Amino acid sequence: MSDDKLRSALVYRIDTSSESPVVTMLAKYDHASDYEAHAGSASESLYGSRDKDYADAVGMVINNDPPMTGIVESGTIGDFKIVQSDVHQVAYGTDPEGLCLAVITGLRYPSRVATQMLVELYAEYSETFGLQAKSATAGSLIKKSKPYLAKYCAKFDDLESVDKASSLRGKVDEVKVQMQDNIATMLHNIDKAETIQDQADQLNEQATVFKKKSTDLRKQMRCKNLKMTIILVLLIGGILAVILIPLIIRAKNAIDKKDDNP
Q: In this structure, are residues 132 and 82 in contact, taking their beta carbons and an 8 Å threshold?
């Protein structure tokens, strides 16, 4: 799987005195302990088969496409090349004397930062080991070179501290994450607001139904009360009629009798 991690730093000497260049590994530093364990499972992998050392594989890459020592200014490293495999990339360059520095990174590691590392590493490394590198045997500078290679690997492993674009991208990613969180929160709040609105609508609807039922019940009670009042009035009127009519008749009859017997 590709990533933006720095893997290894290596030092080679390119001898162009013969017809074909001879590439000799002088020093290497494995910045991550599992690189050789990740040796390519695919035929086009950077490291080749599992029994090959990653330094040998990078040496083959350089030998297949060596940088041109003759076009590089004295005291500098140049003619940088970037070679990619399915999961890694190698950046390397050389000085006019054939001192070649290389770095292995993940595919998403910016190549401009890889070449920047080689330039800064070369300035210090060539001053310290430039003369020894001309005659050193294979692997003889590994132990001496480790502090220098480790120093620059550690420095350039933190992309945001050495590359403004990477730092900006990191900040943009942080903003994107924050925006995504804000959008998620906003959507959640919208859903919550819609739920509250639905509940409010339901309450309003229930209140309307309750009000209608209350009005209907009030009308029914009024009608019932009116009926009861009429019944009571009629009942009382009937009772009064039953009581008063006989009394009135008796009184009238008494008056009539008096008139008949003066």
A: no
Beta strand 99-106 with 6-15: parallel, antiparallel or unpaired?
antiparallel
Contact between 83 and 59 under an 8 Å Cβ cutoff? The reply is: no
Residues with Cβ within 8 Å of residue 219, at least 6 apart in sequence = none
CA distance 53 to 37: 10
| Two tokens, residue 32 | 């991550």
CA distance linking residue 152 with residue 120, whole number of Å: 8
How many whole angstroms separate alpha carbon 208 and alpha carbon 47?
78
Residues 246 and 255: their CA atoms lie apart, in Å, by: 14
Please tell me the distance from the alpha carbon of residue 203 to that of residue 146, in angstroms, as a whole number.
75
pTM exceeding the 0.85 threshold for the entire prediction: no
Over 60: is that where the pLDDT of 238 sits? Answer: yes
From 92, 90, 59, 63, select the one nearest 78 (Cα to Cα). 92
Q: Which DSSP state fits 136?
A: P
Strand partners, 100: 12, 94
